[in-house]
Amino acid sequence: MMALISRWPRACALVAVAALAIAAYWPGLSGHFLFDDFPNIVQNPAVHATAVDWASLERAASAYQPGPLSRPLATMSFAVDHAFHGLDARGWKRSNLAIHLLNAALVFSLLLALLRLAGREGLGALAPAATLAALWAVHPLQASTVLYVVQRMEMLAATSVLLALLAYVAGRRRQIDGRRGGWAFIAGSAALAATGLLSKESAVIFPLLALALEATLLRFRSADAREAKALRWAYGAGTALAALVFFAVVLPHYADPAQYAYRDFTMGERLLSQLTILPMYLQQSLLPHPGSMLFNYDHLGAPTGLFTPPTVALGGLLLVGLFAAALALRERLPLASLGVLWFFGAHFLTSNVVPLELAYEHRNYLALLGVLLAVYGAVAHVMRPRALQVLALAAVLLVAFLGFMRSLAWGSALSLAVENATNNPLSARAANDLGVELAELSGFDPESPFFARAVAEFERGMALPKASPLPEQALIVMHAGRGLPVQSAWWDSLDEKVRTRTLGPQERMAVSGLLDRAREGMAIDPRRLEQSWRLLDGRDPSPAHQRAQFADWLSRQPGRTDAALAEFQRAEAAAREAGDERLRSAITRRMEAIRSSSP
Question: In the listed set 517, 540, 563, which residue is the last one of a domain according to the structure?
Answer without folding.
Answer: 540
